[in-house]
Amino acid sequence: MKTVVMIEDSKVLGTALFGALKVEGVDVHWAKNGVEGVALAKQVKPDLVLLDLMLPKLSGFEVCKLLKTDNTTWRIPVVIMSTLTDEESRTRAQECGADHFIAKPYDLAATLGEIKKYLKM
Fold it and tell me: How confident is the model at residue 121, as a pLDDT?
């Protein structure tokens, strides 16, 4: 079974994606802030991290950098999903080590397709 850590503070967006991933047979762990997300990723060591940029406690940029510079999590792909779609945000996401960027609002079917590529499903 593939495992995903989703770090998302929006209940509406998180619930939709959580449910869709569960239907696909993915084991999903959901953190609602950056600090909780880093701890969860280190504990679970998922196949993929889905990361919002605007989070309480630690920004998505900080979370991404922490995960990509840690010996236990640096190989885990990080897919950023954000409403911050300006060039500066995309560049910062790339610089912190993100593997992919999906703009919100997103098409759920297309997003699941992208996630499945990273999970090799």
Answer: 86
The number of residues making up the chain comes to 121
112, 18 in Cβ contact below 8 A? no
pLDDT in tens, 52-83: 999 999 999 999 999 999 999 999 999 999 99
Architecture of domain 3-119: 3-Layer(aba) Sandwich (3.40)
The residue assigned the tokens 């850590």 is: 5
Domain extent listing, the chain? 3-119
User: Residues of 81-114 as b/e, b for ≥16 C-beta within 10 angstroms?
Assistant: bbebeeeebbebbeebbbbbbbebebeeeebbee
